Amino acid sequence: MADSILVQLRKGALDLCVLAVLSKGESYGYEIASRLVAAVGMGEGTIYPLMRRMQNDGLVATRLVESSSGPPRKYYRLTPLGQSVFEAHRRDWQSFTDAVDTLLEDLP
């Protein structure tokens, strides 16, 4: 049962986590996935469909960069809309976690 809430929390925060990574600068898919695995244990398989959706929604832009060690890498960066959405999600997250922390602190 404890695993199920953690899975749901990860799913709910995934968009925010990806936007947070990209708010620090452009990055390619594998690098984004690796950072999320290390930080919150999110699997790599969930990243690419999310990146496609974010691109379709206008939150991220992409560019291809040739690689000497394989196929070209697709780099993602936030668009101005993506930056705005990130800032709004960040405020919402902070408000939500503050409320949950307050409830948890009030327990006997």
Could you provide a short overview of the structure?
This protein has 108 residues and is an alpha+beta fold. Helices cover 65% and strands 18% of the residues.
Task: Give an overview of the whole structure.
The protein has four helices and three strands, in the order αβααββα. With 108 residues, the protein is of the alpha+beta class. The protein has one domain: Arc Repressor Mutant, subunit A. A three-stranded antiparallel sheet has the order 1-3-2. β2 and β3 form a beta hairpin.
Please report the distance between the alpha carbons of the first and last residues. 23 Å
Q: What characteristic shape results from the CA principal axes?
A: elongated
Looking at the structure, the CATH topology is Arc Repressor Mutant, subunit A
Order the strands across the largest sheet as they lie in space: 1-3-2
CATH class: Mainly Alpha
Count of helical segments? 4
Q: Which segments are poorly predicted (pLDDT under 50) over 5 or more consecutive residues?
A: none
Please identify which CATH superfamily we are dealing with: Winged helix-like DNA-binding domain superfamily/Winged helix DNA-binding domain
Major beta-sheet overview: 3 strands, antiparallel
Mean pLDDT across all amino acids? 90
Overall helicity: 55-70%
Q: Can you name the CATH architecture?
A: Orthogonal Bundle
Give the C-alpha Rg.
Answer: 16 Å
User: How many structural units, i.e. domains?
Assistant: 1
| Record field, number of beta strands | 3
Order of helices and strands: HEHHEEH
Q: Structural class of the helices, strands and pairings?
A: alpha+beta
Q: β content, as a range? A: 15-25%
